[in-house]
Write a structure and sequence with these properties.
By secondary structure, the chain is an all-alpha fold. It is built from eight helices and no strands.
């Protein structure tokens, strides 16, 4: 794998993980970047950079962000967003990984892109359930804001410094894994 392919893979993983926070934010960021010539999309994925796609992603992004501010609807959206984030993560990764055999591109997209999106979405879903129970849903506004900001920042970071974004995703995943393993409840149930 050459350096350009590695960078495009890191870009895909960063954008895919951002899909786990908000499904449409990374797609909108990628669409804007492609539309302005700052991102090259692979082959048949160039439609993502079209003006109609950019408008559709912008409308979907606004609706998604606003919907997460409605108490209890946000938990319902997590049910839908889980599979949607995985699909979006696969799509966005496959659209940016270049100079690879299609089989390798799709394998990387499914495993790394879909996996990064699923892991991020899973973590946010757990966090939302915890804040819903602890605050009766009133603390979810703060979590929703943090998720939208995180999705935006990670998407932009992935475009500007793909390797840093990918390393951030991996370190975040490792930190979450350590927290889960060392949590007293987890240790009791696994013993």
């Amino acid at each position: 794998m050459d350096l350009d392919t590695l960078f495009s893979f890191c870009l895909g993983v960063g954008l895919a993980a951002a899909c786990g926070f908000r499904v449409f934010v990374p797609l909108l960021v990628a669409s804007i970047a492609a539309n302005t010539g700052h991102l090259t999309l692979v082959g048949r994925f160039q439609w993502i950079g079209s003006r109609p796609a950019m408008i559709a992603f912008a409308v979907a992004t606004v609706l998604e962000i606003l919907a997460y501010y409605v108490p209890w609807i946000d938990n319902l959206l997590d049910t839908i967003a889980g599979p949607a984030a995985v699909v979006a993560g696969i799509l966005i990764t496959a659209s940016v990984v270049k100079d690879t055999d299609p089989l390798l591109r799709w394998t990387l997209a499914v495993i790394a892109g879909g996996g990064a999106a699923a892991a991020t979405q899973g973590a946010t879903t757990v966090a939302r359930h915890v804040t819903s129970l602890a605050t009766l849903g009133f603390g979810n506004h703060l979590l929703s804001t943090a998720e939208a900001v995180s999705s935006t920042l990670l998407s932009v970071l992935a475009l500007l410094v793909p390797v840093v974004a990918a390393v951030t995703v991996v370190l975040g995943g490792l930190l979450l894994l350590v927290l889960l393993i060392t949590h007293p409840r987890w240790r009791r149930s696994s013993a």
